[in-house]
């Protein structure tokens, strides 16, 4: 009787552990409606980007972490690193990206006079317009998919432009503003004209969030 009970209890216990591991990461809700960034980013793009692409990274990260926990050898754990980096980076980057954006009627695109970030952009790039121009040129040059970053370099104490390929998270700097340069972020609306997407997105960048992030580290 005891051994029969064990044969039922043990599998149930291990399934519940696996389920807990698989449910660690969840898709964060957007702090605005899918159509709130129009006309700069269409509702269709936002909904697909959030519910399909970001959800895919969340699912992939949960699956990779679950496999990592179960992997019986160091060799098999190492083999999962690419999946952890790709899906984990995708989850981290998109979570930051949504908070980097704001509808125009909620302050999107507006960098306040006297803010710490504005002063730092003028110090490190000459002007806010020069910063945007340099950012767009650097990110337009990404070959394939990747991310463009306004980032804080803790060693030089300056703001710098950095790009990362694929879904690599930014690990060398503190991210202040991250812009998704994957085609899924703009193609339905801007087709192949990445420059138009990059010009438009500054109208919905949440500079208040970026200023708060900068003020935390500078
Ligand atoms: Fe994306």
Automatic annotation (TrEMBL):
<dbReference type="InterPro" id="IPR050265">
    <property type="entry name" value="Fe/Mn_Superoxide_Dismutase"/>
</dbReference>
<keyword id="KW-0479">Metal-binding</keyword>
<keyword id="KW-0464">Manganese</keyword>
<dbReference type="GO" id="GO:0004784">
    <property type="term" value="F:superoxide dismutase activity"/>
</dbReference>
<feature type="binding site">
    <location>
        <position position="49"/>
    </location>
    <ligand>
        <name>Mn(2+)</name>
    </ligand>
</feature>
<dbReference type="GO" id="GO:0005739">
    <property type="term" value="C:mitochondrion"/>
</dbReference>
<keyword id="KW-0049">Antioxidant</keyword>
<dbReference type="InterPro" id="IPR036314">
    <property type="entry name" value="SOD_C_sf"/>
</dbReference>
<dbReference type="InterPro" id="IPR019832">
    <property type="entry name" value="Mn/Fe_SOD_C"/>
</dbReference>
<dbReference type="InterPro" id="IPR001189">
    <property type="entry name" value="Mn/Fe_SOD"/>
</dbReference>
<dbReference type="InterPro" id="IPR019833">
    <property type="entry name" value="Mn/Fe_SOD_BS"/>
</dbReference>
<feature type="binding site">
    <location>
        <position position="180"/>
    </location>
    <ligand>
        <name>Mn(2+)</name>
    </ligand>
</feature>
<dbReference type="Pfam" id="PF00081">
    <property type="entry name" value="Sod_Fe_N"/>
</dbReference>
<dbReference type="GO" id="GO:0030145">
    <property type="term" value="F:manganese ion binding"/>
</dbReference>
<protein>
    <recommendedName>
        <fullName>Superoxide dismutase</fullName>
        <ecNumber>1.15.1.1</ecNumber>
    </recommendedName>
</protein>
<comment type="similarity">
    <text>Belongs to the iron/manganese superoxide dismutase family.</text>
</comment>
<dbReference type="InterPro" id="IPR036324">
    <property type="entry name" value="Mn/Fe_SOD_N_sf"/>
</dbReference>
<feature type="binding site">
    <location>
        <position position="94"/>
    </location>
    <ligand>
        <name>Mn(2+)</name>
    </ligand>
</feature>
<keyword id="KW-0560">Oxidoreductase</keyword>
<feature type="binding site">
    <location>
        <position position="184"/>
    </location>
    <ligand>
        <name>Mn(2+)</name>
    </ligand>
</feature>
<dbReference type="InterPro" id="IPR019831">
    <property type="entry name" value="Mn/Fe_SOD_N"/>
</dbReference>
<feature type="domain" description="Manganese/iron superoxide dismutase C-terminal">
    <location>
        <begin position="115"/>
        <end position="213"/>
    </location>
</feature>
<comment type="function">
    <text>Destroys radicals which are normally produced within the cells and which are toxic to biological systems.</text>
</comment>
<feature type="domain" description="Manganese/iron superoxide dismutase N-terminal">
    <location>
        <begin position="25"/>
        <end position="102"/>
    </location>
</feature>
<dbReference type="Pfam" id="PF02777">
    <property type="entry name" value="Sod_Fe_C"/>
</dbReference>
């Amino acid at each position: 009787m005891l051994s029969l009970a064990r044969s039922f209890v043990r599998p149930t216990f291990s399934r519940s552990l696996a389920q807990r591991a698989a449910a660690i990461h969840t898709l964060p809700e957007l702090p605005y409606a899918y159509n709130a960034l129009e006309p700069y980013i269409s509702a269709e793009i936002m909904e697909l980007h959030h519910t399909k692409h970001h959800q895919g990274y969340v699912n992939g990260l949960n699956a990779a972490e679950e496999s990592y926990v179960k992997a019986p050898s160091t060799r098999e754990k190492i083999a999962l690193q690419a999946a952890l980096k790709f899906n984990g980076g995708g989850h981290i980057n998109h979570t930051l990206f949504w908070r980097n954006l704001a509808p125009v009627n909620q302050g999107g695109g507006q960098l306040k006079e006297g803010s710490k970030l504005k002063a730092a952009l003028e110090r490190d790039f000459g002007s806010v317009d020069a910063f945007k121009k340099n950012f767009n040129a650097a990110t337009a040059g990404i070959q394939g998919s990747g991310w463009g970053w306004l980032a804080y370099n803790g060693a030089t104490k300056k703001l710098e432009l950095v790009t990362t390929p694929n879904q690599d998270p930014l690990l060398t700097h503190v991210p202040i503003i991250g812009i998704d340069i994957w085609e899924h972020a703009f193609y339905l609306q801007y087709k192949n004209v990445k420059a138009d997407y990059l010009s438009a997105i500054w109208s919905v960048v949440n500079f208040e969030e970026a200023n708060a992030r900068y003020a935390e580290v500078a």
